[in-house]
Design a protein that fits this description.
Shape: rod-shaped
Distance between the termini: 95 Å
Order of helices and strands: H
Low-confidence stretches: none
Largest sheet: none
Number of helices: 1
Oligomer: single chain
Helix content: over 70%
Length: 73
């Protein structure tokens, strides 16, 4: 290997390390943001499903109460 190839290899490694070090705070912030927003979305979806199930159950109960009773019941 020539000295030029070794120099280029070391330079690439140093520049890559500097790039990762420079962007690490941004990448960590973005990762935390994705996790927090994903958790918030999961909570909202769960609440919406619970609300839909509750409302569906309430509608079914109301329909049963509204139905006229027949003599055979």
């Amino acid at each position: 290997m020539t000295l030029l190839r070794i120099w280029i290899g070391v330079t690439v490694v140093v520049l890559a390390t500097l790039a990762v070090w420079a962007f690490a705070p941004i990448l960590i912030f973005m990762a935390l943001l994705v996790v927090v927003l994903g958790g918030l979305a999961a909570i909202m979806i769960g609440q919406a499903r619970r609300l839909r199930a509750c409302l569906w159950g309430c509608k079914r109960r109301r329909r049963r109460l509204r139905q006229p009773r027949t003599a055979d019941r």
